[in-house]
């Protein structure tokens, strides 16, 4: 194993977990491997592939990356190739001929290929010793990137002349997704390896700036000039306008999104890899397969669609193990945008619901005052042994928490008084004594909590309500139009058995400070 590592990849030692996984897989055992992005999953099947007699087929959903992955292997002297829909008929025929003649050890294919007659004919003729299923979370509809084509994999494996070893790999999987992978890929007595998701060199923080752009600009201005990083934004339009603004303000920034020409995209990517540009402003199209070790910051200008996406994108920072920052700039309007995107993306109601719940988990992350690392670990089903990591944005925020119990009780009472039938905006309107038409039409001005928070701004009440939701004192349904409901914890708060302590600096007070520029 060490000899192969050194000869083909030029590395001296294995990383955590790699050696035992490789040993098991070489020994013929199925495996499920969960390791963070950049953790070194590929070697876990590439080394066994070199050692095995027959071929290994790698199923990978990212057609755009296949070529690069294969080229890297070829550069290392490994006989690898790929088959996908981008090949011309003549190139395809030539590859099939070469494959049949045993020229390759590794074959990369898209899951869609499994349903094509030519691919199935080919597989009947090859000796296939191993199947590696990359991005295995795509098989589960509980995951963030469900691809129905993945569901065909286990059926296809059963058609092969001999059952090969099956290795499933992913960077992120909650418990439900893990169970789906085991079940739907029909892994047999698999060796399961889970590398903790916690990365101690990453400083996670969530900030809610009043003026996002100003905040970003000031933050970047303070970052050392030699530092490079990524600013993620939700849409192509935002990417472009943000890049323009940053450039006008003197920053060395370039844009990257799928709407740009391949040439322009490659240029940005190359400039980034070679440190010719310090900031890449990008949509989520940027990053997959980009293996730059010294990314010092990943800033999310908009909230991504869920926790998995956030973890994966933020995780591109600090692969070299040095301290790096992952900052999420939160604005409640991003939730509305993401909901709209979810609405447009699927008509399947069950899928729709799952996507909303996944988004809700990230919203909770944005509002919690608990340790951000612990919050993330809990989300991914890991056992949390320490409730404070001591180095995330929440743990290092030394501002004393303020007792907001009375205010929280007012909000909860109002939710009760309006019959647990309305969303946050209506509840806020009632609390502030709004005279809007809808409040009058629904006679909500008659409830006892009408106007009891007149002295508070909409933003303040909203922040506190969202905090209560994040901490579990209040429930918000995961619907397109979420409704506020009370739960067992709400009762405790209402009865004064649970105090609501929130750090003002984390919430609206910090926003106020920023506004005044101090
Ligand atoms: P993943 O698929 O988990 O995101 P990769 O397999 O692409 O990660 O590995 C990330 C980077 O780490 C690659 O550049 C890879 O060559 C490197 N790497 C993997 N294993 C080792 C090792 N044992 N020693 C040094 N570098 C490694």
UniProtKB/TrEMBL annotation:
Q: What class of enzyme is it?
A: isomerase
- Helicase ATP-binding domain residues are 22-191
Report the EC code(s) recorded for this entry.
5.6.2.4
Record Gene3D superfamilies: HRDC domain, P-loop containing nucleotide triphosphate hydrolases, Winged helix-like DNA-binding domain superfamily/Winged helix DNA-binding domain
Keywords for the protein's UniProt record, in alphabetical order: ATP-binding, DNA damage, DNA recombination, DNA repair, DNA-binding, Helicase, Hydrolase, Isomerase, Metal-binding, Nucleotide-binding, Zinc
As cofactor, the record names:
Mg(2+); Zn(2+)
Keyword Ligase on entry: no
User: What's the name of the protein?
Assistant: DNA helicase RecQ
Q: What is the lineage of its organism?
A: Bacteria, Bacillati, Bacillota, Clostridia, Eubacteriales
Which gene does this sequence derive from?
Answer: recQ
């Amino acid at each position: 194993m060490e000899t192969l590592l050194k000869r083909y990849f030029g590395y001296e030692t294995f990383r955590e977990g790699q050696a035992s996984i490789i040993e098991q897989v070489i020994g013929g055992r199925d495996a499920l491997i969960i390791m963070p992005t950049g953790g070194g999953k590929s070697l876990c099947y590439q080394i066994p592939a070199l050692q095995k007699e027959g071929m290994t087929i790698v199923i990978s959903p990212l057609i755009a990356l296949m070529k690069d992955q294969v080229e890297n292997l070829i550069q290392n002297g490994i006989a690898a190739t790929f088959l996908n829909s981008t090949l011309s008929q003549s190139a395809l025929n030539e590859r099939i001929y070469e494959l049949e003649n045993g020229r390759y050890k590794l074959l990369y294919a898209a899951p869609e290929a499994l349903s094509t007659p030519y691919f199935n004919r080919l597989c009947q003729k090859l000796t296939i010793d191993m199947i590696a299923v990359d991005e295995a979370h795509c098989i589960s509809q509980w995951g963030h990137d469900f691809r129905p084509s993945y569901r065909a994999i286990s059926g296809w494996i059963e058609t092969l002349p001999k059952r090969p070893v099956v290795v499933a790999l992913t960077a992120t999987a909650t418990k439900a997704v893990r169970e789906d992978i085991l079940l739907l890929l029909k892994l047999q007595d698999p060796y399961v390896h889970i590398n903790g998701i916690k990365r101690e060199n990453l400083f996670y923080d969530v900030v809610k700036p009043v003026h996002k752009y100003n905040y970003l600009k000031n933050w970047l201005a303070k970052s050392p000039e030699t530092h490079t990083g990524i600013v993620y934004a939700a849409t192509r339009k935002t990417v472009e306008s943000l890049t323009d603004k940053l450039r006008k303000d003197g920053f060395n920034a370039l844009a990257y999104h799928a709407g740009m020409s391949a040439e322009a995209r490659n240029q940005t990517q190359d400039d980034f890899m070679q440190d010719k540009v310090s900031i890449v402003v990008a949509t989520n199209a940027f990053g997959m397969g980009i293996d730059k070790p010294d990314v010092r910051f990943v800033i999310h200008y908009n909230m991504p669609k869920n926790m998995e996406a956030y973890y994966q994108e933020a995780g591109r920072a600090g692969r070299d193990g040095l301290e790096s920052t992952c900052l999420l700039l939160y604005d409640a309007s991003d939730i509305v945008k993401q909901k709209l995107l979810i609405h447009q993306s699927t008509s399947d109601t069950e899928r729709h619901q799952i996507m909303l719940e996944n988004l809700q988990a990230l919203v909770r992350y944005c509002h919690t005052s608990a340790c951000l690392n612990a919050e993330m670990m809990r989300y991914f089903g890991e056992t949390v042994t320490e409730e404070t990591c001591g180095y995330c944005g929440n743990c290092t925020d030394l501002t004393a928490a303020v007792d907001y119990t009375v205010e929280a009780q007012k909000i909860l009472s109002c939710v009760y008084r309006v019959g647990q039938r309305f969303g946050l905006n209506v509840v806020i309107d009632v609390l502030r004594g709004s005279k809007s038409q809808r409040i009058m039409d629904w006679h909500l001005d008659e409830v006892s909590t009408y106007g009891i928070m007149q002295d508070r701004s909409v933003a303040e009440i909203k922040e506190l309500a969202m905090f209560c939701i994040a901490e579990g004192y209040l429930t918000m349904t995961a619907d397109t139009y979420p409704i506020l409901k009370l739960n067992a914890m709400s009762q405790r708060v209402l009865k004064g058995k649970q105090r609501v302590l929130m750090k003002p600096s984390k919430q609206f007070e910090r926003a106020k400070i920023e506004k005044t520029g101090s």
